[in-house]
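In response to the reviewer comment on reproducibility (Comment 2.3), we provide here a single inverse folding case reported in full, input and output, so that an independent group could reproduce the run without further information from us. The structure tokens appear first.
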């Protein structure tokens, strides 16, 4: 079967953006202070090696990303969170 001149054919399917909109969980929950002593909450912002996840992945606003980074560093200093680990999650 021959394609017609008016048909548009693609080699790969057209990508449709179906991802959910990212949001800042701090602004949504109206959290004003990031507690460095809450290690369980701060683990949500770390990957399996213990590195801090970037804003583009978590959706956190710039203001709270800075606060999260500072809180993680303080928790690491007090040995509430590890600096490096093989498999955290």
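Designed residues, in position order:
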């Amino acid at each position: 079967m021959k394609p017609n001149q008016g048909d548009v054919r693609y080699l790969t399917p057209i990508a449709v953006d179906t991802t959910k909109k990212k949001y800042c969980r701090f602004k949504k929950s109206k959290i004003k202070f990031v507690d460095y002593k809450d290690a369980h909450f701060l683990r949500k912002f770390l990957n399996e090696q213990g590195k801090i996840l970037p804003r583009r992945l978590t959706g956190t606003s710039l203001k709270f990303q800075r606060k999260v980074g500072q809180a993680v560093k303080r928790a690491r200093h007090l040995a509430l969170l590890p600096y490096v680990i093989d498999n955290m999650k």
